[in-house]
Amino acid sequence: MNLGKVSFIAAPALIGAYGVARLIDRQSRAGWTFGHLLMLAGLVLFGLVIVELRRLAPGRTSTSFAAIGLIGLAASVAQIGIDIVVGLLARDAADKQHMFQQIQQVPGVQPVVYTVVPILFYVGLLGLTVVAAVARSAAWWTPALVLAGTVAAATNLDYIPVAGALYVLALAPMAFRRIRRATHAIA
Q: From CA 34, how far away is CA 22, in angstroms rounded?
């Protein structure tokens, strides 16, 4: 099984694991760093998910959604990277808050890294799953589960584990479907 196929399961599972780690330990430096490293790994693997989804449903629309998703993903990776660095450098919670305020006051950082551009990842992911479902490369319910997971996480960050589970349910069948196709092609 190659990394592209594994990413359909590992990426959302790591996002869900970040959510669990966040619920268990929000205060300690080790807990913060561990959780954010899980999130970073999940986001990196979601880059592979986007590329694989683009392959499942080729075309201009799919290419556009992949580009949108990758732009949003880059912003999300930047956000998590900042979180990790600040978490490691801050002496305490007050220092962490002060550092975040300084970073977010830099013109353009707030919309590009925190509020607007990261949303494009979810728009691209949802768009790609819709295109894949229309092309019958994904089940009809795949986009519905991706949307439900996105809404859950957007509603309350404490629901990130739910979002991760919904993303696994949405994306895992495509990994197994691709594995079966590869197995049949070899035989």
A: 9
Tell me the per-residue pLDDT of 79-94, one tens digit each, with 9 for 90 and over. Answer: 999 999 999 999 988 9
Query: What angle (nearest 5°) sits at the alpha carbon of residue 92, between those of residues 44 and 111?
Result: 45
pTM: 0.90
Q: Please check whether residue 33 is in contact with residue 84, taking contact to mean a CB–CB distance below 8 angstroms.
A: yes
Residue whose token pair is 């996105």: 150
Domain ranges of the chain: 3-186
Is 185's pLDDT higher than 60? no
In DSSP notation, 93-109 reads: HHHHHHHHHHHHTSTTH
CB 124 within 8 A of CB 66: yes
Contact between 50 and 128 (Cβ < 8 Å): yes
Query: Given this model, what pLDDT does residue 152 score?
Result: 97
Q: Is 136 in a helix, a strand, or coil?
A: coil
* Three-point CA angle 113, 37, 101, nearest 5°: 35
State the pLDDT confidence band at 173, using cuts at 50, 70 and 90. very high
Q: Which residues of 67-96 are buried (b: 16+ CB within 10 A; e: fewer)?
A: ebbbbbbbbbbbbbebbbebbeebeeeeeb
* Residue 98 near residue 48 (C-beta atoms within 8 A): no
Amino acid (one-letter) located at 56: L
The torsion angle over the Cα atoms of residues 32, 37, 42 and 47, rounded to 10 degrees, is 130
